[in-house]
Predict the structure.
Amino acid sequence: MRANKIHGDKGFTLPELLVAIAVFGIVISAIYATYASSQRSYARVSEISYMVQNIRAGIAVMEKEIRMAGYDPTNSANAGITNAGSSSITITQDLNADGDTSDTDESVTFSLADSDGDGDTDLVRNNVLLAENIDALNFVYLDENGAVTANLSDIRSVQITIVARTAKADKGYTDTQSYANQQGTVILVAQNDHFRRRRLTSEVRCRNLGL
């Protein structure tokens, strides 16, 4: 018996196949572009989030210890602020009330240094890493009337300004901003690079100074 012939069973023509492949390619390209954009957005948000957490943690430690500068329950340790630099500070305190400030954590210096040898500056506490990728650290010292002073014995408050940046560059962004302290003095000129930055400021009252 002769098999019945199926009419119209010709498959796809070459032009139809090429059109289908082109449409498929366009759809895949659109999906990939959306995925890539989402990945870049996620990476950017993650970098910024880490930077903000990093800078907040660093300034919180500085606030706590600078606030305790001059803690001297025996009035014989001569504790206070012993170095009042624009980008570094050294504070002393007699934590165990033994009349001196020579014990562990009784003399603390905050400054910037390349703590891990990667060429970037970090916030360090006694040369130990506290916060990574810090572009600027600035201290301003105020007397009891809120006026700026360079006299160690007159310091009652400290204004802290810190500028941090992301670890990785964002090629779609250019930072053209300059960063200033609370006095309006620029502490970091515009870098015109592709790193995102955040500035955080605080003013700490040294409760043990001037007692």
